[in-house]
Design a protein that fits this description.
The complex is a heterodimer of chains A (about 900) and B (about 290). Chain A has about 900 residues and is mainly β. Chain A is about 10% helix and about 50% strand. The radius of gyration of chain B is 27 Å and the shape is extended. In chain B, the strands form 2 sheets. In chain B, strands 1, 2, 3, 4, 5, 6, 7, 8 and 9 form a 9-stranded mixed sheet that branches. The termini of chain B are far apart.
């Protein structure tokens, strides 16, 4: 310790007293096979906060490097990373760097896309983003986290995806309503979104103040796309079966114009999960014009419409009866065809205009304007005064009939095993009921319907980023951005299933207040409205969210130490605009709600100590506050304006320490981190047995601590053999007892106030807190490769129902009553070991390149791998057990393959 | 050459994508209206079936009747749970009698409308009683005691209860007289003429009674009286607290009321299906 301190002091002294000259380093990068310039290559000075991207001529430049020895990495997706050493003693032009097409990297990039569709599992949450593509360049841990661990829903440091920021050519793409990063808005555009710069963890980047979990910048500039044409076909048995994709980029032509076009289709009549069909299209057009050495303008537009039938989650009992962990209760036969009740359709046409202005060699200004309008729709069944149509509803499963004649119970189990009209949705029955539902006027009032829950959004964004090298040793990055968002949320009638209309009332309120005509009305201004196909009904409101953000970071480079410090300030406002007057809340549902305004800030600082050219020690410190998202702020946004009690910005304090090792044979990093979240709020809605109605459960004052170590290493065993390993040992826990407010959804009545939720020391659910992998890759000089990986996951916990961890739930239970433990214990999911492998080869014929890559994941076909789960909030109040409402689980796919045949010229 | 390949590629890719085999289908043909029917024919009357009840839980099987292996009854549905006064049961009747069929399912009117002819395959089902009224159903273990209960949801109901045809029959309620108020007519659709509700005013709140307590969801019995005839036992008008009309103030006049005749420990009870079953328009008579 003393020695370390001494070294630190010496280092500081040395660096502050010795003001050395600053030099610039530049060079060109080209393709080793064709000899043509490679644009879009990320050039990184290892251990120094310096990155550059090659331009259309393959040219890059750094300024502000001090004399010394450096390792420089050249990174481009689809190419093998090149590492060179440079001895800087003055302004220097490095020799041209030639990059080889890398088979493995290419294959990884191609395979990675598939992981995105894990969000198929999510039923409600919008576009559950998976960090599958977040890959910090050239970091063994980060690439393991994004490629291997993503199969286990691994979140780096346990952070939810909303803590990572995502930019597309400068436009922030996190959904303003919920914070989710919408990876699926460019699904199928893999070819053009390869160029990306990521930064994991706390440090800011040149183009963003960054979040808590890092930031990713997708660079889709036409001038930096790889020149040429690429067409590929992929076959898989995952969410889709077929994929066709083509891309053409002109590169920067002599007239200063670059042009990129890309398109794809992915489809399946039935994916890995029964009853899930899939149809996705995508297009991308990018144009860039370089007017002169100072000004370039780029225009980009893309869209990826995806329509897909969803997988539902179910209990283990239903899955056991169905004989598969991939049982999907969402579909049933209609006229002999499989029909899925939950179909999601989404698209978001986006238009981006960029202006790149190199004011002088030390000052750059990048300005961006974006516009997008999207739709996000999910259909679902609804019913009125009729039997719950879901085949796995708890009253339909054998366990509900525990007190019945055992021979009858086995008949029920047999029926579930053998009769699809029992184990799946029974569309024929629903039609039959509707046809049999004549009202007093002889019209058919539908009892069962398919409704479509829709969010139509539009968003304008503007941002400007400046990169200014004030002094050779001082560089300042900063920016401002603003966005205006409106999301229209409503329900639309999709299918009356043979009936003629649906009455727009709330059936729970009708039941409890029979005879009161105005209370059950969803639209009081149009009471007892008969809803036809295409009509809006149920609820309709707009989410208005406006954000403004300004930030600046100063980077100061000394001989042995790099320092940075930065701050950001953000303004957020949001309000709800109700488009329907709800019968329960006639005065608090229609029109504009009061505005919620939040001012937030963040500060970050850090230092890198360059112990030697091969050893770096880095530490970062951050304190951030963040406005709550619209989605989590209203008690019941569908019906009323009420915000949750104690709505406040959350606060985050974080620190990490990293050690980086760079030798020609080993690249390794070890990090330790500690993050504390404070003042978080959470909202859950569910059916409650005590009140026989839907309730909203809001918790405030949630505190969590995420701490742990992560390490990764890439070890070159020989020129052809590489060993990769990574591990994350974390502990992500709740550290407070939040206060809950329970309100009845349809009436707004407060049922419980400041109920203490005893979840201190509970684990943050649904991500493995332990993950490790070991991989071996053989890359033959004869253009083929073979790789295999083993990964291990443990300490993943299911999401818990807070209502069961209250004094009220345990009332009257003796301390040794087993029901006490059964209600309160948080279930840990079993650990799992997975093995993946991939193989690939490429051929060259004249200027044509052919790639064939094949990947098998989960070779052992482990089909009982629980990647997540949640407790049902419902439990029996009288019996004080949740036996009839067991948890539901997500399972990772069994053995699947992905085969890609690509042609490039 | 490059240009040609490029154009060719785009054309091929485009053509492939659009003409890709198996265009993914998200549309479905509507299910046509269909009539459920069955070829099963009754071989036992409801009266004969009820006659087999030994006074305690009894499982119907191939030995119940000497002459036949299977027991099949047929009847017309007379009850209706749409308004919530019936819960998880339907009443069916044929020319000989009526019986309550217990089904563990709600909103049964979606499946079995009034007047629907149904066939019940009884083998494996149980006869039991509740307060002296015979019921047909399944059994469940109530803390060690086996009791009659409803058929356990669709998988079991599908095996025993079949709708026969689409035509809804019109059942004329049996007009009651003191002589007809007997065990034989329990479960039938009946009608009482010239009756009134005995007590109409609550002595506590001094307001007219409602049919039931819809606030606390408590069932209420109101006594029916007929001034012109004398029934040997009391008749109550029984309404569930969950009925939609539970909170409606009772009809205070005199007239006719119909419903299903049920029985509990010596008391005959009338269960209305909805408020159309009560028609009190005459002046009250002297009780």
């Amino acid at each position: 310790m003393r020695r370390l301190f001494l070294m630190l002091m010496v280092g500081l002294f040395y660096s502050t007293t010795t003001l050395l000259a600053q030099y610039s380093v530049s060079g060109y990068v080209k393709d080793s096979q064709t000899g043509s310039a490679l644009p879009g290559v990320t050039v990184q000075v290892v251990g120094v906060n310096q990155t550059a991207t090659t331009d259309a001529n393959g040219y890059y430049q750094f300024s502000g490097l001090q004399a010394g020895k450096y390792i420089i990495d050249y990174i481009l997706s689809g190419y093998q990373t090149v590492e060179t050493e440079a001895n800087v003693e003055g302004d220097l032009q490095l020799p041209d760097v030639s990059m080889n097409r890398g088979l493995t990297d290419d294959a990884y990039a191609a395979f990675s896309e598939v992981t995105v569709s894990l969000d198929d599992l999510e039923s409600e949450s919008r576009g559950q983003a998976v960090s599958g593509l977040l890959q910090s360049q050239n970091d063994a841990f980060s690439s393991a986290a994004s490629f291997t661990f993503s199969a286990a829903r691994f979140n780096i440091r346990g952070y939810k995806p909303e803590y990572s920021l995502l930019f597309m050519n400068g436009v922030p793409v996190n959904d303003p309503e919920s914070g989710f990063a919408g990876w699926s808005s460019w699904g199928g555009l893999n070819d053009v979104t390869r160029n990306r710069e990521s930064r994991n963890g706390l440090p800011p980047t040149d183009w963003s103040f960054g979040g808590l979990g890092g930031a990713t910048f997708l660079n889709v500039r036409a001038s930096q796309q790889r020149t040429g044409t690429r067409i590929s076909y992929a076959s898989s048995n995952r969410t889709y079966n077929n994929r066709l994709m083509f891309t053409h980029s002109t590169g920067l032509m002599s007239n200063g114009v670059a042009f990129t076009i890309s398109g794809s289709r992915r489809w399946a009549e039935e994916g890995y999960i029964e009853g899930t069909n899939y149809d996705a299209w995508a297009y991308f057009i990018g144009i860039e014009k370089k007017f002169n050495n100072k000004h370039s303008v780029a225009f980009t537009t893309f869209n990826a419409p995806i329509k897909r039938a969803m997988q539902g989650v179910s209990t283990d009992e239903a899955k056991t009866l169905a004989g598969t962990n991939f049982y999907n209760p969402n579909w049933g036969y209609q006229n002999g065809e499989k029909r899925n009740a939950r179909v999601r359709f989404q698209q978001e046409p986006t238009f981006i205009l960029n202006h790149y202005w190199d004011i002088n060699s030390s000052l750059k200004l990048t300005s961006t304007a974006g516009f997008s309008f999207g739709t996000y729709q999910t259909t679902g069944l609804n019913w009125y005064d009729a039997q719950d149509p879901r085949p796995d509803y708890y009253r339909k499963l054998p366990s509900y009939w525990i007190d019945s004649d055992p021979s009858v119970v086995s008949q029920i189990a047999d029926a579930f095993r053998n009769d699809p009209s029992i184990s799946q949705l029974d569309w024929d029955y629903m039609y039959k009921v509707n046809y049999n539902s004549k009202d007093a006027n002889d019209s058919l009032r539908s009892k069962y319907i398919v409704e479509n829950r829709i969010t139509d959004s539009r968003q304008f964004t503007f941002s400007s980023i400046v990169n200014w090298s004030i002094l050779p040793e001082l560089k300042v990055n900063g920016g401002i951005d603003a966005s205006i968002y409106k999301g229209k949320n409503y329900k639309q009638m999709d299918d009356l299933l043979g009936g003629q209309y649906w009455l727009d009332i709330d059936q729970f309120v009708e039941r409890d207040f029979f005879g009161n005509d105005s209370l059950p009305q969803n639209d009081l201004d149009n009471p007892n409205r008969k809803v036809k196909v295409g009509d809006t009904f149920g609820y309709s409101y707009d989410a208005n969210v406006n954000n403004g953000n300004i930030w600046a970071v100063a980077n100061y480079t000394l001989n042995r130490i790099d320092l940075y410090a930065g701050a950001s300030y953000s303004y957020s406002e949001f309000w709800r605009t109700g488009n329907m007057r709800n019968g329960r809340f006639p005065d608090n549902s229609k029109g504009d709600s009061p505005k919620q305004v939040f001012n937030n800030y963040g500060v970050k600082t850090g230092a890198t100590w360059k112990i030697t050219g091969r050893h770096y020690l880095e530490a970062n410190l951050a304190y951030l506050t963040r406005a709550p998202f619209f989605r989590n702020s209203y008690i019941s946004p569908r019906t009323s304006n009420f915000v949750i009690p104690g709505l406040t910005s959350e606060r985050i304090a974080a620190v990490d320490v990293n050690y980086n090792l760079r030798t020609p044979y080993i690249k390794a990093r070890v990090s330790a981190y500690y993050t504390k979240f404070m003042d978080q709020t959470e909202l859950k809605s569910f059916y409650d047995d005590t009140y026989r109605t839907f309730i909203n459960y809001t918790m405030r004052g949630i505190e969590k601590v995420h701490r742990g170590v992560e390490a990764g290493a890439e070890i070159k065993l020989s020129t052809t053999l590489t060993l990769n390993t990574a591990a994350s040992l974390g502990s992500y826990q709740f550290t407070s007892r939040p206060l809950a407010t329970v309100t009845q959804d349809n009436l707004g009545t407060i049922l419980q106030q400041d109920q203490v939720v005893y979840i201190k020391n509970f684990y943050v659910p649904n991500t493995p807190q332990t993950a490790a992998m070991l991989g071996l890759r053989y890359a033959s000089p004869k253009y083929w490769f073979l790789g295999a990986e083993v990964s291990y996951y443990d300490h993943s916990y299911i999401d818990f129902a807070p209502g069961k961890r209250t004094a009220e739930a345990l009332q009257g239970l003796e301390p040794n009553d087993p029901r006490r433990d059964a209600l309160t214990r948080q279930e840990k999911m079993p650990s799992a070991l997975l093995i993946d492998a991939n193989i690939g080869k490429s051929w060259r014929y004249k200027s044509y390149f052919i790639n064939l890559n094949f990947q098998i994941t989960n070779i052992l076909d482990k089909t009982d791998f629980k990647t997540g789960g949640f407790e049902q909030a419902r439990y029996s109040i009288t019996e004080q057990t949740s036996n009839k409402f067991p948890p539901k689980y997500f399972y990772g796919f069994g053995r699947t393959y992905f085969l890609i045949l690509g042609l490039r010229f | 050459m490059r240009k040609v390949s490029f154009i060719l590629t785009i054309l091929t890719a485009g053509a492939l994508m659009i003409s890709a085999p198996g265009c993914v289908d998200f549309t479905y043909d509507e299910v046509e209206p269909r009539v459920d029917t069955t070829t099963l024919v009754a071989n036992t009357t409801i009266a004969d079936l009820k006659a087999m009840y030994p006074g305690e839980l009894y499982k119907l099987n191939e030995n119940t009747f000497f002459q036949r292996d299977s027991i099949i009854i047929e009847g017309i549905v007379t009850s209706d749970d749409k308004e919530g006064n019936f819960y998880k049961s339907i009443f069916i009747q044929d020319a000989t009698g009526a019986i309550e069929l217990k089904l563990n399912k709600t909103s049964l009117y979606n499946d079995y409308k009034r007047g629907q002819k149904i066939v019940v395959y009884c083998n494996g089902l149980y006869l039991g009683d509740y307060g002296g009224q015979i019921q047909l159903g399944s059994i469940y273990n109530n803390n060690g005691n086996w009791e009659i209960s409803g058929l356990e949801g669709d998988p079991i109901i599908k095996k025993h209860v079949f709708k026969k045809g689409k035509q809804l029959a019109d059942v004329t309620p049996l007009t009651m007289t003191p002589a007809l108020l007997t065990q034989v007519n329990i479960g039938k659709l009946v009608k009482f003429d010239n009756v009134q509700i005995k007590d109409t005013l609550s002595p506590i709140t001094d307001t007219t009674y409602t049919y039931a307590d819809n606030v606390n969801k408590v069932t209420v019995n109101h006594t029916l009286v007929a001034c012109s005839q004398t029934y040997l036992s009391a008749i109550v008008l029984r309404t569930s607290g969950y009925a939609r009309f539970a909170g409606t103030t009772i009809a205070t006049k005199n007239g006719s009321v119909s419903g299903i005749l049920t029985y509990y420990k010596g008391t005959y009870q009338l269960l209305m299906r909805d408020l159309n079953d009560i028609n009190f328009t005459n002046d009250r008579c002297q009780q």
